[in-house]
Amino acid sequence: MSQAIEERLLYQFRKPELLEVALTHRSVTPATSGRNNEKLEFLGDAVLDLAVGDLLMQQFPQYQEGDLSKLRASLVNAHVLADKARALALGQALRLGKGEEKSGGRDKESILAAAFEALIGAVYLDRGFVAARRVVMRQFADDLRSRASGAVEDCKTRLQEITQRIFKATPTYTLVRETGPDHAKLFVSQISIGGRPLGRGEGKSKKSAEQAAALEALETLQTQAATLVPEGAAGMEMGARRARKAPVSGTGGER
Hints:
The chain is mostly helical. It has two domains: 2-139, Ribonuclease III domain (Ribonuclease iii, N-terminal Endonuclease Domain, Chain A, Orthogonal Bundle), CATH 1.10.1520; 148-244, Double Stranded RNA Binding Domain. It is built from 13 helices and three strands, in the order ααααααααααβββααα.
């Protein structure tokens, strides 16, 4: 059973006993014995927060602390971690006491999420943070890709909120170039506000080109606030900062 988990995790433990402890629920042994996964869960929780936070900062360099915190909360929570535990079949491998076994503990969200955290904590103790980060990166790769797509989409909404508040105008998108054969088109979209070009973006569809243009426009507003709105630069910059701290589409609640 342990070997199957290592294969799914794409990680081989140097100290197999760490994996055994990570899969041992407190209902099996007294908390004072130290042979259950509570301490590894505690450690894994901290490692997960650090590793996911690091990955998010690399994936979304333009985001501020508020956005990053919300994104991390949407990824590191009991529901998501329990699903990852199920994908690794941790439930079948858990060592449970008779009471938890009878009450369906192998599929309880709280127990599965704790087991996943304990597993990450065990990897950290086995080979250190770099190894644990690699495991976390593989486990959350699809989640990060989906959040990246949602974050770019959200840029259009954020930009419209800012421009309506500051300029009292709605952004307009213009297709300025379309190249390539039908099966491999490349579109270039330009965004303007009140007739003033503010950014360009490329994409394999008109929609993705507009999303990329909106992202560039947001960055332009941040860096050129004084030029665009001399008399209200400070206010606009504050508005942009607040918009960046607004909830990201698709995020969940706090842990």
